[in-house]
Amino acid sequence: MEKLPKLPSLLDRKIYKTGQTRGADDDEIYQNRVGRNSTILIPFHQFEKYRIEKVYSMNYENGFIVLISPMDYFGNKEIDLNQLNLKLGENLLIFYETREDWLKHNPEEKGFTVATSRLAPLGGEYIARIPATTASDNGEKINKGFNATSLKGAGIRAYEYASTNNIQNARLQLEAIFWHCRDAELVATENGMLKENVERRKKWAIEESTKKGLLDYNKLQEKRILNSKNIAICPLCLEEISANGFFNKVPQAEGREVIDLTITQLNLFHIHELRYGEFNHIPYNLGWGHHFCNVVVKDSGIDNTIKWMIDVLKRNSFKIN
Question: What percent of the chain is helix, strand and coil (3-state, nearest 5)?
Fold first, then answer.
């Protein structure tokens, strides 16, 4: 089989990164920029809310860990962990986030050890991420578990999860959507691809997407990913997007420039927002949108954002020409 031409490196990295989670710093319990099929972390009350049956039926490829607070684990007698099929050190960890909990229920005094594995058995019973305080006595930061260079973060946010198959299909579909930008071929050549390689790569992406059922134009239009002319659009503002937006950085306000800015004008856009209890990083729920439109939507979702925008416009109608 003849080797497939490579995409421009910046575009290739952007598509690849759609299969990774958002960033997390060292003081968070989450992993930083890893695959969406990694072990997931579920806060205990979210686990209760979305029902044990649903969580167990989701078949997470690398399992899940439920994080329970010391207050719930030691003090809430109404919680029956056996009934919930939760076992400390297997799929459950006590998560210390406050100094008060640490002092009241010190795990070391109780003979508990720090967890060392993301897969059962977890190698311990607790983890901790407690910020430093300004108090002079015992106010140091307490970071216990999954803080070594080779093992940073216990897992990923549950709502960011995607199966390996969905990650691969989403990447393929997102490339096909790129080729539906009004100027995709021109921009690809301007960014280092030979014209004949552009034609080969585009043909492959379209054919593979069609073969796998990832290029249903009616569905892509309905989901606000393409317009009626099958041109790629921003899912919020519905403006046709230029492929240049994959390569150009967002403009910066004068006097507030950041030298190492890496944010491009176009970014991954979830049509239905990521939320607990749903798999929303899937084909036909992902498009490319303007960075600023993405910032406006945040975690509210497109529909709620549009309703809010309508209310804002109504209240400002006297100012609109």
Answer: 35, 15, 50
Q: Are 271 and 285 in contact (CB under 8 A)?
A: yes
How far is it, in rounded angstroms, from Cα 200 to Cα 227?
Answer: 24
Please report the sign of the dihedral spanned by the C-alpha atoms of residue 211, residue 212, residue 214, residue 219: positive
| Inter-residue contact 115 to 87 (CB < 8 Å) | no
Q: Which residues contact 69 (CB under 8 A, 6 or more apart)?
A: 44, 94, 95, 97, 101
Q: Which tokens go with 82?
A: 């056996």
Amino acid symbol at 281? H
Task: Tell me the C-alpha distance between 151 and 117, whole Å.
Answer: 9
- pTM score: 0.91
Q: Over the stretch 181-193, which tens digit does the pLDDT of each residue have? A: 999 999 999 999 9
Q: Which residue has the tokens 């069609």?
A: 210
How many whole angstroms from its chain centre is CA 267?
12
Which parts of the chain fold into alpha helices (H)? 9-17, 44-49, 52-57, 70-75, 99-104, 164-178, 184-190, 195-211, 217-222, 291-297, 302-315
pLDDT digits (tens, 9 = 90+) for 131-146: 988 765 668 899 999 9
C-alpha dihedral over 242, 248, 251, 252, to 10 degrees? 160
What's phi and psi for 317, nearest 5 deg?
A: -60, -30
b (16+ CB within 10 A) / e for 259-293: eeeeebbbbbbbbebbeeebebbbbbbbbbbbbeb
